[in-house]
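Memo to structure team: turn this sequence into C-alpha coordinates by end of day. - J.P.
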Amino acid sequence: MITLNINGLRVSVEEGSTLLEAARFIGFPIPTLCHMDGLTPYGACRLCVVEIGEGLKSKLVSSCTYPAEEGLKVRTASERVMRSRRMVIELLLATCPQSKTIQDIAAQFDVHQQRFRQEHEDCILCGLCVRICKEQMNAGAIGFHGRGDHRSIGTPFDIKSEKCRTCGACIYACPACQLRCTYTQQDAAICGGCANISPPCLEKDIFHDMMCYMNPCAACEIKRD
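Reply from structure team:
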Protein backbone atom coordinates (compact mmCIF):
# COMPACT_ATOMS: atom_id res chain seq x y z
CA MET A 1 0.00 0.00 0.00
CA ILE A 2 1.05 3.60 -0.68
CA THR A 3 0.18 6.48 1.64
CA LEU A 4 -0.19 9.99 0.27
CA ASN A 5 -1.90 13.24 1.19
CA ILE A 6 -4.88 14.41 -0.86
CA ASN A 7 -6.47 17.73 0.11
CA GLY A 8 -5.11 17.38 3.62
CA LEU A 9 -6.26 13.80 4.14
CA ARG A 10 -3.96 10.80 4.52
CA VAL A 11 -4.97 8.20 1.98
CA SER A 12 -3.74 4.63 1.49
CA VAL A 13 -4.14 3.08 -1.97
CA GLU A 14 -2.81 0.05 -3.75
CA GLU A 15 0.54 0.36 -5.48
CA GLY A 16 0.08 1.12 -9.16
CA SER A 17 -2.98 3.33 -8.61
CA THR A 18 -3.18 6.68 -10.37
CA LEU A 19 -3.94 9.96 -8.63
CA LEU A 20 -7.34 9.98 -10.34
CA GLU A 21 -8.20 6.57 -8.94
CA ALA A 22 -6.95 7.55 -5.47
CA ALA A 23 -8.94 10.80 -5.40
CA ARG A 24 -12.14 9.22 -6.66
CA PHE A 25 -11.78 6.34 -4.22
CA ILE A 26 -12.22 8.70 -1.29
CA GLY A 27 -14.83 10.86 -2.99
CA PHE A 28 -12.94 13.84 -4.43
CA PRO A 29 -14.49 14.59 -7.84
CA ILE A 30 -12.15 15.18 -10.76
CA PRO A 31 -13.61 15.91 -14.22
CA THR A 32 -12.39 13.90 -17.20
CA LEU A 33 -13.09 13.86 -20.91
CA CYS A 34 -10.53 11.57 -22.53
CA HIS A 35 -10.66 9.03 -19.70
CA MET A 36 -12.92 5.97 -19.64
CA ASP A 37 -12.75 3.09 -17.19
CA GLY A 38 -11.35 0.00 -18.87
CA LEU A 39 -9.21 1.93 -21.35
CA THR A 40 -5.55 2.88 -21.15
CA PRO A 41 -5.04 6.36 -19.62
CA TYR A 42 -4.14 8.89 -22.29
CA GLY A 43 -3.89 12.32 -20.64
CA ALA A 44 -5.01 14.28 -23.70
CA CYS A 45 -7.77 16.59 -22.47
CA ARG A 46 -5.96 17.89 -19.34
CA LEU A 47 -9.25 18.39 -17.52
CA CYS A 48 -8.12 16.06 -14.76
CA VAL A 49 -5.08 18.13 -13.78
CA VAL A 50 -4.18 18.29 -10.09
CA GLU A 51 -1.45 20.15 -8.25
CA ILE A 52 1.31 18.17 -6.57
CA GLY A 53 4.22 19.25 -4.41
CA GLU A 54 4.61 22.42 -2.37
CA GLY A 55 5.77 26.00 -2.85
CA LEU A 56 7.87 26.81 -5.90
CA LYS A 57 8.30 23.12 -6.66
CA SER A 58 4.59 22.47 -7.09
CA LYS A 59 3.34 21.60 -10.56
CA LEU A 60 0.26 20.55 -12.47
CA VAL A 61 0.02 16.96 -13.69
CA SER A 62 -2.70 14.89 -15.32
CA SER A 63 -4.15 12.74 -12.56
CA CYS A 64 -5.23 9.96 -14.93
CA THR A 65 -1.63 9.17 -15.89
CA TYR A 66 0.37 10.20 -12.81
CA PRO A 67 1.03 7.32 -10.38
CA ALA A 68 0.35 7.63 -6.67
CA GLU A 69 3.65 8.02 -4.83
CA GLU A 70 4.55 7.57 -1.18
CA GLY A 71 4.24 10.85 0.76
CA LEU A 72 3.03 12.85 -2.24
CA LYS A 73 0.92 15.92 -1.47
CA VAL A 74 -1.95 16.46 -3.88
CA ARG A 75 -4.54 19.24 -4.27
CA THR A 76 -7.45 18.51 -6.57
CA ALA A 77 -9.20 21.89 -6.51
CA SER A 78 -6.64 24.59 -5.71
CA GLU A 79 -6.91 28.03 -7.30
CA ARG A 80 -4.22 27.09 -9.80
CA VAL A 81 -6.03 23.85 -10.71
CA MET A 82 -9.42 25.52 -11.15
CA ARG A 83 -7.94 28.28 -13.31
CA SER A 84 -6.31 25.68 -15.54
CA ARG A 85 -9.50 23.63 -15.85
CA ARG A 86 -11.61 26.63 -16.82
CA MET A 87 -9.06 27.54 -19.48
CA VAL A 88 -9.20 24.00 -20.89
CA ILE A 89 -13.01 24.14 -20.90
CA GLU A 90 -12.95 27.42 -22.83
CA LEU A 91 -10.64 25.87 -25.42
CA LEU A 92 -12.91 22.84 -25.73
CA LEU A 93 -15.95 25.07 -26.17
CA ALA A 94 -14.14 27.02 -28.85
CA THR A 95 -13.24 23.79 -30.65
CA CYS A 96 -16.45 21.78 -30.35
CA PRO A 97 -19.34 23.88 -28.95
CA GLN A 98 -21.99 21.47 -30.26
CA SER A 99 -20.93 18.67 -27.89
CA LYS A 100 -23.46 18.20 -25.09
CA THR A 101 -20.79 16.45 -23.03
CA ILE A 102 -18.55 19.53 -23.18
CA GLN A 103 -21.53 21.82 -22.57
CA ASP A 104 -22.39 19.90 -19.40
CA ILE A 105 -18.82 20.16 -18.12
CA ALA A 106 -18.81 23.89 -18.85
CA ALA A 107 -22.06 24.36 -16.91
CA GLN A 108 -20.65 22.38 -14.01
CA PHE A 109 -17.71 24.77 -13.74
CA ASP A 110 -19.74 27.90 -14.41
CA VAL A 111 -18.10 28.61 -17.76
CA HIS A 112 -20.63 30.42 -19.95
CA GLN A 113 -18.42 31.92 -22.66
CA GLN A 114 -15.01 31.49 -24.18
CA ARG A 115 -12.44 33.99 -25.41
CA PHE A 116 -10.97 32.12 -28.36
CA ARG A 117 -11.70 31.92 -32.06
CA GLN A 118 -14.85 29.89 -32.56
CA GLU A 119 -14.53 26.67 -34.52
CA HIS A 120 -16.86 23.76 -35.10
CA GLU A 121 -14.60 20.74 -35.26
CA ASP A 122 -15.90 17.19 -35.33
CA CYS A 123 -12.98 15.80 -33.31
CA ILE A 124 -11.12 16.94 -30.20
CA LEU A 125 -8.44 14.22 -30.54
CA CYS A 126 -9.22 12.67 -27.15
CA GLY A 127 -8.35 9.23 -28.55
CA LEU A 128 -11.30 7.45 -26.95
CA CYS A 129 -12.51 5.98 -30.25
CA VAL A 130 -9.03 4.70 -31.11
CA ARG A 131 -8.53 3.08 -27.72
CA ILE A 132 -11.97 1.50 -27.43
CA CYS A 133 -11.66 0.09 -30.96
CA LYS A 134 -8.29 -1.49 -30.20
CA GLU A 135 -8.55 -2.42 -26.53
CA GLN A 136 -12.19 -3.37 -26.06
CA MET A 137 -13.31 -4.41 -29.55
CA ASN A 138 -9.94 -5.97 -30.51
CA ALA A 139 -10.20 -4.45 -33.97
CA GLY A 140 -7.76 -1.56 -34.30
CA ALA A 141 -9.63 -0.31 -37.35
CA ILE A 142 -8.76 3.36 -36.74
CA GLY A 143 -5.77 5.32 -35.52
CA PHE A 144 -4.06 8.70 -35.48
CA HIS A 145 -2.63 10.36 -38.59
CA GLY A 146 -0.06 13.13 -38.72
CA ARG A 147 1.21 15.45 -36.01
CA GLY A 148 0.45 18.85 -34.54
CA ASP A 149 -2.14 20.86 -36.45
CA HIS A 150 -2.36 18.08 -39.04
CA ARG A 151 -3.20 15.35 -36.54
CA SER A 152 -6.42 13.47 -37.31
CA ILE A 153 -8.14 10.14 -36.81
CA GLY A 154 -8.96 7.72 -39.57
CA THR A 155 -8.22 4.40 -41.20
CA PRO A 156 -4.90 3.45 -42.79
CA PHE A 157 -4.58 5.27 -46.12
CA ASP A 158 -8.06 6.77 -45.50
CA ILE A 159 -9.86 3.83 -47.07
CA LYS A 160 -12.60 1.70 -45.56
CA SER A 161 -11.14 -0.67 -43.02
CA GLU A 162 -11.75 -4.38 -43.46
CA LYS A 163 -11.29 -4.75 -39.69
CA CYS A 164 -14.25 -2.50 -38.88
CA ARG A 165 -17.30 -4.50 -37.75
CA THR A 166 -19.61 -1.44 -37.55
CA CYS A 167 -20.06 -2.16 -33.85
CA GLY A 168 -20.60 1.52 -33.03
CA ALA A 169 -18.15 1.57 -30.10
CA CYS A 170 -16.29 4.57 -31.53
CA ILE A 171 -19.48 6.64 -31.75
CA TYR A 172 -20.56 5.49 -28.28
CA ALA A 173 -17.28 6.68 -26.75
CA CYS A 174 -16.97 9.95 -28.67
CA PRO A 175 -17.67 13.02 -26.51
CA ALA A 176 -17.92 15.21 -29.61
CA CYS A 177 -21.04 13.46 -30.90
CA GLN A 178 -22.29 11.57 -27.84
CA LEU A 179 -25.83 12.48 -26.81
CA ARG A 180 -26.43 14.82 -29.74
CA CYS A 181 -29.62 12.90 -30.55
CA THR A 182 -31.78 14.15 -27.67
CA TYR A 183 -35.18 14.16 -29.35
CA THR A 184 -37.98 12.13 -27.73
CA GLN A 185 -40.75 12.68 -30.29
CA GLN A 186 -40.98 10.12 -33.07
CA ASP A 187 -41.73 12.73 -35.75
CA ALA A 188 -38.63 14.68 -34.73
CA ALA A 189 -36.29 11.72 -34.54
CA ILE A 190 -33.96 12.98 -37.25
CA CYS A 191 -31.98 15.58 -35.34
CA GLY A 192 -29.37 16.22 -38.04
CA GLY A 193 -26.54 15.80 -35.57
CA CYS A 194 -25.01 12.99 -37.59
CA ALA A 195 -24.75 15.34 -40.55
CA ASN A 196 -22.05 17.21 -38.66
CA ILE A 197 -19.71 14.29 -38.11
CA SER A 198 -17.51 12.29 -40.40
CA PRO A 199 -17.35 8.67 -39.19
CA PRO A 200 -13.66 7.73 -38.95
CA CYS A 201 -14.03 4.26 -40.45
CA LEU A 202 -17.47 4.06 -42.05
CA GLU A 203 -18.68 5.04 -45.47
CA LYS A 204 -21.44 7.62 -45.58
CA ASP A 205 -23.94 5.27 -47.23
CA ILE A 206 -24.08 3.20 -44.06
CA PHE A 207 -25.97 6.07 -42.47
CA HIS A 208 -29.67 6.23 -43.34
CA ASP A 209 -31.49 9.58 -43.42
CA MET A 210 -28.53 11.14 -41.60
CA MET A 211 -29.28 8.99 -38.57
CA CYS A 212 -26.79 6.81 -36.77
CA TYR A 213 -26.57 3.39 -38.43
CA MET A 214 -27.27 1.66 -35.12
CA ASN A 215 -30.82 0.55 -34.37
CA PRO A 216 -31.82 1.85 -31.92
CA CYS A 217 -29.67 4.98 -32.08
CA ALA A 218 -26.94 4.70 -29.44
CA ALA A 219 -27.62 8.23 -28.24
CA CYS A 220 -31.39 8.74 -28.25
CA GLU A 221 -32.46 5.07 -28.41
CA ILE A 222 -35.29 5.87 -30.80
CA LYS A 223 -36.12 2.88 -32.96
CA ARG A 224 -36.52 3.58 -36.64
CA ASP A 225 -39.21 1.99 -38.82
